[in-house]
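Entry 14. Ran structure prediction on the chain below.
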Amino acid sequence: MNTHTALSRQSRPAPTHVRRVPSPIGRIEITSDGQSITSLAIERDGRLPHDELADSSAPVLEAAAEQLTEYFAGKRTSFDLPVAVEGTAFQRAVWNELSAIGFGEVSSYGTIGAATGRATAGRAVGGAIGANPVPIIVPCHRVLGADRRITGYSGGAGIPTKAWLLDHEGIAHR
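Output, structure tokens:
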């Protein structure tokens, strides 16, 4: 995957730039500090985290909006965007593993746990995946149970959103 990730522990203020884009899974809100993408949220129950803020442009947000539009149109399989997010060392290790899962590929919670040195920490891995602040760009939807079952998803409408993303990428699931 071509996503640039700068997974830092820096404290981040409220987003200085917000951009919303329509998508087949609902509106998507992308935030930025002006240099990097700092979050991505999928509409839930008609709401986004920063609905009260007006859209404000930044080159990185315009690039993100274009790449997301291409992804949903089936014309893009990876993202090339600078990403800077907060998280614990363990969360950042999990998110780095997620970034390595390519379009149309899948991993399991156990595989990611083993790769981060915590092979038996399924719940912790699931928690770190659920805390991913930039879903789709850092593809947490590509993680399934060992039996290829969808076990949950915190973005958008939850499991139906994850199923849509998996189907869009041609990933078999149960």
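The chain has two domains: 4-83, 87-168. Will compare against last week's run tomorrow.
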